[in-house]
User: What shape does this take?
Amino acid sequence: MDSEKTRKERTLSEDPERRPEVKRLQSRQPSPPVATGSEAQGITIEGLSAFYGSFKAVTDASMNIQANKVTALIGPSGCGKSTFLRCLNRMHEVIPGARAEGCVRLGDQDIYAKGSDPVKIRQRVGMVFQKPNPFSKSIYENVAWGARINGYRGNMDELVERSLRQAAIWDEVKDRLKESGMGLSGGQQQRLCIARTLAVEPEVILMDEPASALDPVSTQKIEDTMEELKKRYTVVIVTHNMQQAARISDYTGFFYIEHMGDPGRLWEFDATDKIFSNPERKETEDYVTGRFG
Ligand SMILES: Nc1ncnc2c1ncn2[C@@H]1O[C@H](COP(=O)(O)OP(=O)(O)OP(=O)(O)O)[C@@H](O)[C@H]1O
Ligand SMILES: [Mg+2]
Assistant: This one.
């Protein structure tokens, strides 16, 4: 354990204002992620805060993300969901002036430890963005590209097919693999981007509102892929769609800002059934029942 972490832990446990909050949240957390026999890893987050310059966007979030489960992140706009998500694969620090504090462990590896390579972390923790962003290359190359860059030595045709199948788009594109990815519909492009992320063979997939710009049919297809994806991967999804969170996720984290100008907090984290049927906190209930936000 490095001295900085020791210092951080001491600060956390000695600060009387923060201690009850952390303790209470942790008491409802699922137990730390365990290996499940597949290669998927869980993520343990302890006391994570995220900054843009001097502005604190997320404060002191702790959460255990279980392997081979879908974890949904919900909450009003601006409460730090995307920021938190980007901290899980070291994409946050790519923004000039942005930094994170606290501990994020992928399996048993501290991803912020000195010497930890952000490029390798991003291979292990892939990300799908809100807006589909295929490359102006063929459908095949869109999927193969990342794997090739990583020096993939297996059968590329097989990898491309497997990834497209897992993303539930193989049947729609199998006869047009040489055509441009840009020629697909928005929903197809998003599933192509999921396939592209899978082809790098990550352990965790982060999705930031992947279906927010899609029609109900495409949204349904993305949701259908979740059930399949979690058999192999750990999935974290940000969504503004309450029904979607309730349908597809096993665990749900509710982010919230109590007062204007405060940083976003992980307000409540629990099994999705509990969050949607009997949450501990009034704000969570108000939010999931559509009374605000
Ligand atoms: N690149 C940035 N530079 C400065 N501040 C930022 C940046 N990105 C986000 N923020 C601020 O950080 C806070 C959290 O933003 P974030 O995008 O994480 O919220 P969110 O919960 O994902 O919101 P939404 O639901 O609208 O996507 C907001 O106050 C936002 O204005
Ligand atoms: Mg966001």
